[in-house]
Amino acid sequence: MADWHVVENVGRTLVLLIERRIGELAIGGVTVALTTTAAFPALRSTSVPFVSLFLFQISGNPEMRNRPMQLGPNGQLRRQSLPLELCYFITAWGVRAPNDIASDGVAAREEARLLGAVMQALYDNAEVGRSDLFELVGTTVWAPGDGLQIAMETLPVDQHYRIWDAGEMPYRLSLIYRVRVASLDPSLPPATPSVVQAQFEVVP
Q: What pTM, to 2 d.p., does this model score?
């Protein structure tokens, strides 16, 4: 159960997990960052190996929606948290020299290593506990019992192509991951029910 920082903090949690695994595997000089498709053209000519995480979809968890209100620790009723699922498009970018076939082969192997490291990182951390969730010092976002589930998904090839076509980019091998359940807490208490009937009595 988190506040409005939840979307940002989920992404930064994934970045930390991937950076940690890449460091453990001694793959040096790699940048891991959250990006949008606007950065993809520049990444084609990156000067350092790069792993981009593009958040392309946020949806509600269907199994946990529309649950009834719950009683809070202060004795007041509160709305249930909004259960979220976040989908990420993860791409590895190797360093290439323009119009150099040998350079392209080296970059392709580099990208394969990076995608392998990403899969290892997220498979090893399929269940993320509270201690591994990103949080700025002095800013409490997550509740003590919070955690995330990370699952690899398969996106149809034609949908992959649509993402690249939208940016007028050639197709690149990418990974799809769904992160659930990140819950957004309500910031306002439930509205007090309207008075529909009133009865006055005079007690002698």
A: 0.83
Q: What three-state secondary structure class fits 186? A: coil
pLDDT per residue as tens digits for the range 73-86: 666 666 677 889 99
Name the nearest CA neighbour of 12 among 118, 104, 133: 133
Are the C-beta atoms of residues 178 and 85 closer than 8 Å to each other? yes
Task: For residue 2, give the DSSP letter.
Answer: B
In angstroms, what CA-CA distances link 71 with 3, 68, 98, 111? 19, 10, 62, 50
- Are the CB atoms for 53 and 177 separated by under 8 Å? no
CA distance 53 to 35: 6
Answer whether 44's CB lies under 8 Å from 93's CB.
Answer: yes
Residue 201: its pLDDT value, please? Answer: 66
8 Å CB contact between 31 and 50: yes
- 115: Cα within 13 Å, side-chain hemisphere: 19
Residues 6+ apart with CB under 8 A from 107: 94, 95, 96
Q: How far is 18 from 32, CA to CA, in rounded Å?
A: 7
Q: Is it true that the peptide bond before 181 is cis, omega within 30 degrees of 0?
A: yes
The residues with which 88 forms a beta bridge, in sequence order, are: 55, 177
